[in-house]
Amino acid sequence: QVQLVESGGGLVQPGASLRLSCAASGSAFRFLAMDWYRQAPGKQREVVAAITSGGSTNYADSVKGRFTISRDNAKNTVYLQMNSLKPEDTAVYYCKADHVVTRLTYWGQGTQVTVSS
Questions:
Q1: Any idea what the Cα angle at residue 82 is, between residues 78 and 88, rounded to 5°?
Q2: pLDDT of the residue at 26
Q3: Rounded Cα distance, 60 and 15, in Å
Q4: CA 93, CA 81: separation in Å to the nearest integer?
């Protein structure tokens, strides 16, 4: 079993930055591929960024060049650095973990990000 706890959301103005964190417990972090998803009101949940257990990254086109996903295996934590935030980035952001051995998937509870002037 894996538990995921997100933090770092908030209300910011356009152009500002935020860093989200997702702390994982309950399993060896190095076996987890980690993703950040987001869901805006009335829209489907979409993947924002992904990082493999080996550290390879991938991004949605809408956030390329603005968001950076990273992981600290010593702290069992994945981060999402979000720069140059736009109102359309407003959403609940979720952390997802995929265990590369068991193939099980786990979700965090989400953290709200609101970008508004």
A1: 125
A2: 78
A3: 19
A4: 12
What is the per-residue pLDDT across 65-79, written as a single tens digit (0 to 9) for each? 999 999 999 999 999
Tokens of 37: 């998803």
Residues 6+ apart with CB under 8 A from 8: 18, 19, 20, 21, 111
User: Do the strands 111-115 and 10-12 form a parallel or antiparallel pair, or are they unpaired?
Assistant: parallel
Can you give the pLDDT at residue 35?
A: 98
In DSSP terms, which residues pair with 63 in a beta bridge? none
For residues 35-62, one letter each, b for 16 or more C-beta atoms within 10 angstroms of the residue's C-beta and e for the rest, the string is bbbbeeeeeeeeebbbbebeeeeebeee
| pLDDT reading at 27 higher than 90 | no
